[in-house]
Specification:
heterotrimer; A alpha/beta; B mainly alpha; C alpha+beta; A: alpha/beta; four-stranded antiparallel beta sheet; C: alpha+beta; 13 helices; 8 strands
Chain lengths: 250, 374, 392
């Protein structure tokens, strides 16, 4: 395992297959994500893109092939899964903030109980990150008292409090009202500029163009095309890519 | 970093899942033996079932006595149920002491009731409003005339003292629901009213009735109702617990209806008001039809609870099904150690089938409503 | 000008507030008329039947025995005394049944959610069977078919020769404190104080330095271990008075009359089925995304349950749970069917029959239950307001 640590790839998918019952939802996924790389995954609904990134922190299990995250291979071994989850942060489409805790407590929870930080240090860290996502004044409010955009930024801060090496975003702006999408995307852009390894599933093509190092197009469970943003959008190669882009860029 | 760009050349085939990712073996591994504790639990439970089930089945079937004319055969076979006892007492359990010659009247009332209830509860039935009208207005009158009798129609009067058994249980439950629903709707509307006196009166009534045991309501109706009306009115012995049941059920019904009214979006009220409908019209045409549809599962649950509560009316001297069973068990002709258990088990099966069936129906309606509400 | 005058006149009658006032006055008049009529009739009828109209019966001699009493009572005690005996018996049933039903209900509710398919099915069978069977049938079954069918005292069934079952009741060993009991009690008190202090110290240490200690385990070990050591050193704190045959009966031991055993058993098993469903619904109602988010943060399953799922589930469970507790108290009135001497059986039963003071007796009985219901409802509202999830 220590030999794997020298590997400079953040995430490796090798021959990964997954089935839901008899439905073949991921077919022969081969993908390598380098450290500091920003990947945007797009595709029609049902293409398996959410399943793909949920496999990275073992919220979903794959049945064939191997996934190596930060040098650790994902198996049924609970210790390894916890290790991976400490280093991989996730932001959900429906925020999933804990409604019975304040914003500050939401962010400090995992550092206190998982990284075993003293409470004061954890709260300091939380305030720092809440400032970074530009809502320090909401620290003592409850999630139910915040707008959607604010809640999602708190969710980003909460994930960042674990100082992850990799951040996963599962359609982070799809539940937001249009005027709040921008504030969240700006936060994610700032994060990318700070050098975070990011995998983002999204329909926001403007964000992809601006921030991504590579765009991955998935359809029906397989990776169809990967390219840098400019050639991807301006000169798609595969038929299905062209079809998809024509539907969403009008 | 390896290849930067990639374009798919050939499509991946859709493969069937590997043999252990679906099918019974994997299911068993995941659901029965997923951990040491789980495996131990499975083994213990399977052993328990293997020990108990054959004995229970044998008691109910192979060792049971199904035909006999008195208790002798059952006393001889003490390791099985005495279904012969139930068969022999079946008429009494159904009708109580209702005169033999007049029992056809009970059958007719039950048949009409069954038809009307199916009509009302079948979600796709045509013209359900007509069924509701018949059920809530015409049926009670028909029931009373047929069961009690009327000299005008040449039907001999049958004193309520003789009524007993299953039909009394059904009668009390149905009467309870039929009369408590309108009263409950009024109470629910009253509780939401803007007029303080109306609201206070409704709240006091509802909270008072819900805060005391059902038995005390029955006692109160039985002992105090005759005191509150002039001497010459002497309310009938069955009427008193019926009044108690109606009051009791109305309070719980009011809470169900209130929940339904609250779940309606405010826009419904505003739309009706914008059209110029006054309060009674708005309620009758727009609000209540929707609210009551939402509340049908709750009403059915109330009915189940009420049906189980009818077992309590024996405390004021009425003979419901359970009391009839208690009386039947005491018959010396059938005395024996298995009689009591057989009787109670049969009563349990009866109540369980009825209540569980209604509960499944209620869940079914809830599912349909949930789909439509999106 | 005529139009203006007409408009002013008609608007008075159609004014919503005027109409509202009118309806309310009408309602008050109707209720008042009904009440007056009822009271008038009641006075006439009661006088005609010789029914006592005051509360004088409270101090009259009761003249009947009660076979379970927590306070002094005899055939020469007053009806008022009988009331208190009955009330205490009702509260006793509640005090025993509610904790037992909660424990059993939570166990079965958690079993319903178990990943072991067999276990969750067994729990499902339990809840389905018991929620669709009338409580009275259960009580009659336990009382008549089981407890009353036990053999006589001379042929009592025994469990390990310390617990005896016969048709006079269940005889449990009664703990009789010896001198050493003081040390035992002292050990428990000291252990609890230590455990509480230790937990507080561990909590503060975690806040300061982040290091965690298994404080619950250590607290449990203390509370169980210290008294055990003391008992071993100083001698057993209790001797047990075990029932033994004497004549046609058994003497000694703690006798639980069959009426009470049947009532407690029936109430506990019946209510536990409902509590199990409440627990299950509460835990399932916490959105799955909450556990996923907690897992994504690196919290393992135990921490996820303790910090995220259970706090939210308890908010959903508490209101219906207290409503079930109230049901236990109200359902204990079914004691009248099997002869357990609770408030309804003694007061609304025997006392009412003997004094014929129906209105007074029923009024007092219902008032008691109303007070209990209101007290519990107020407590629940208070807790709801304090711990509700804060929203915009």
């Amino acid at each position: 395992m220590s030999a794997d640590r020298d590997d400079d790839a953040a995430i490796r998918f090798m021959g990964v297959h997954k089935w839901y019952g008899s439905f073949h939802v991921l077919r022969n996924i081969n993908l390598t994500v380098g450290r500091g790389e920003r990947i945007v995954v797009c595709g029609p609904s049902g293409s398996g893109k959410s399943t793909l990134i949920r496999c990275i922190n073992r919220l979903e299990e794959h049945q064939r092939g191997s996934i190596v995250v930060d040098g650790v291979e994902l198996t049924d071994d609970i210790k390894r899964i916890d290790e991976v989850r400490r280093e991989v942060g996730m932001v959900f489409q429906s925020f999933n903030l804990f409604p019975h805790l304040t914003v500050l407590e939401n962010c400090a929870l995992a550092p206190i109980w998982v990284r075993k930080m003293p409470r004061r240090d954890a709260e300091e860290l939380a305030m720092k990150l809440l400032t970074r996502v530009k809502i320090p004044e909401q620290a003592l409010k409850y999630p139910g008292q915040l707008s959607g955009g604010q809640q999602q930024r708190v969710a980003i801060a909460r994930a960042l409090c674990m100082t992850p090496k990799i951040m996963l975003f599962d359609e982070p702006t799809s539940s937001l009202d249009p005027e709040m999408v921008k504030e969240v995307l700006d936060t994610m852009t700032a994060l990318a500029q700070d050098g975070m390894t990011m995998i983002v599933v999204t329909h926001e093509m403007g964000f992809a163009r601006q921030v991504a190092d590579r765009v991955v197009f998935m359809d029906q469970g397989e990776i169809v095309e990967i390219n840098a943003p400019q050639p991807f959008f301006d000169n798609p190669q595969h038929e299905r890519t062209k079809l998809f882009l024509s539907q969403i860029l009008h | 970093m390896e290849f930067l760009a990639y374009v798919r050349q050939a499509s991946e085939p859709e493969d069937p899942p590997p043999s252990l990712s679906s099918g019974t073996l994997l299911w068993a591994r995941a659901n029965l033996f997923s951990s040491l504790g789980s495996s131990l639990t499975t083994v213990v439970l399977v052993a328990l079932a293997a020990y108990l089930l054959p004995q229970l089945v044998a008691w109910a079937t192979t060792h049971a006595v199904c035909t006999a004319s008195d208790g002798a055969a059952c006393r001889a076979h003490q390791d099985g149920a005495c279904w012969a006892f139930v068969a022999a007492k079946w008429d009494y359990l159904r009708f109580g002491s209702y005169p033999l010659a007049e029992r056809w009247r009970v059958d007719i009332v039950e048949a009409i009731g069954a038809v009307l209830i199916v009509w009302l509860l079948w979600t796709n039935a045509p013209r359900r409003a007509w069924g509701a009208l018949l059920f809530f207005f015409a049926y009670p009158i028909v029931t009373f005339v047929l069961l009690y009798g009327s000299s005008l129609l040449g039907l001999p009067i049958v004193d309520t003292l003789l009524w007993g058994g299953i039909f009394v249980s059904l009668l009390t439950a149905v009467v309870g629901i039929v009369f408590s629903l309108p009263l409950g709707v009024l109470l629910a509307l009253g509780r939401r009213s803007a007029l303080p006196v109306v609201r206070l009166a409704s709240v006091l009534f509802i909270e008072f009735v819900r805060g005391v045991p059902f038995i005390t309501i029955l006692f109160m109706a039985n002992n105090m109702l005759p005191l509150f009306v002039p001497e010459s009115w002497t309310p009938d012995r069955l009427l008193r617990p019926l009044v108690g049941i109606i009051i009791f059920s109305a309070a719980y019904m009011a809470e169900e209806v209130r929940g339904g009214l609250q779940s309606l979006r405010k826009g419904q009220y505003e739309g009706a008001m914008a059209l110029g409908l006054n309060y009674p019209l708005m309620m009758a045409l727009v609000i209540l039809p929707q609210a009551l549809t939402f509340v049908i599962p709750g009403i059915v649950n109330n009915f189940i609870g009420l049906f189980m509560d009818t077992t309590l009316i024996s405390v004021v001297g009425m003979t419901d099904f359970l009391e009839a069973m208690n009386n039947a068990i005491k018959d010396p002709v059938w005395s024996g150690p298995t009689i009591m258990v057989t009787g109670y088990v049969f009563a349990g099966i009866f109540y369980f089938s009825f209540c569980y069936g209604m509960a499944r129906y209620s869940a079914h309606v809830e599912r349909i409503l949930a789909k439509g509400r999106r | 000008m005529d139009l203006a005058r007409d408009a002013k006149r008609s608007s008075r009658l159609n004014d919503r507030r005027v109409r509202g006032l009118f309806y309310q006055i009408l309602l008050l008049v109707c209720i008042g008329a009904l009440a007056c009529g009822a009271i008038y009739n009641a006075a006439i009828n009661m006088r005609a039947r010789g029914v006592p109209m005051g509360f004088g019966f409270w101090n009259e001699v009761a003249g009947f025995e009660i076979n379970l009493r927590l306070i002094e009572y005899s055939g020469l005690s007053t009806y008022g005394r009988a009331f208190w005996v009955g009330l205490l018996n009702t509260l006793l049933i509640g005090a025993i049944s509610i904790p037992l039903a909660t424990l059993l209900g939570f166990l079965i509710g958690v079993a319903r959610l178990s990943p072991n398919w067999l276990l969750s099915r067994f729990a499902l069978v339990y809840t389905t069977l018991l929620r669709n069977t009338p409580l009275l049938l259960l009580l009659l079954f336990w009382y008549n078919a089981v407890l009353k069918s036990l053999p006589g005292p001379r042929q009592s069934l025994s469990i390990g020769d310390v617990v005896f079952l016969n048709n006079r009741g269940v005889y449990l060993p009664m703990p009789v404190p010896r001198d050493q009991a003081i040390w035992f009690a002292g050990a428990i008190a000291v252990a609890m104080a230590f455990a509480a202090t230790f937990r507080e110290w561990a909590r503060r240490r975690q806040m300061r330095t982040g290091a965690q200690a298994p404080s619950t385990l250590i607290a449990l070990a203390l509370i169980i271990g210290l008294p055990t050591v003391v008992a071993a050193a100083a001698g057993s704190p209790f001797t047990f008075d075990i029932a033994r045959p004497s004549g046609f009966n058994l003497t000694g031991g703690l006798q639980v009359i069959p009426e009470m055993a049947a009532l407690v058993f029936g109430l506990v098993t019946f209510t536990a089925a409902f509590i199990a469903e409440i627990v299950r619904a509460g835990i399932l109602a916490v959105p799955h995304g909450q556990s996923e988010a907690a897992g994504a943060l690196g919290l393992h399953r135990g921490l996820t349950m303790k910090l995220v799922v259970i706090p939210q589930a308890m908010r959903l469970i508490t209101p219906p749970l207290t409503s079930q507790y109230l049901n236990v108290v109200k359902n204990s009135s079914l004691a009248v069917f099997i002869g357990y001497p609770d408030l309804v059986q003694i007061f609304a039963g025997t006392v009412l029959n003997q004094t014929q003071a129906a209105a007074q007796v029923m009024g007092i009985t219902m008032a008691v239950y109303l007070v209990i219901s209101l007290a519990v409802a107020s407590a629940l509202n208070f807790f709801n307001a304090r711990y509700a999830l804060k929203e915009r």
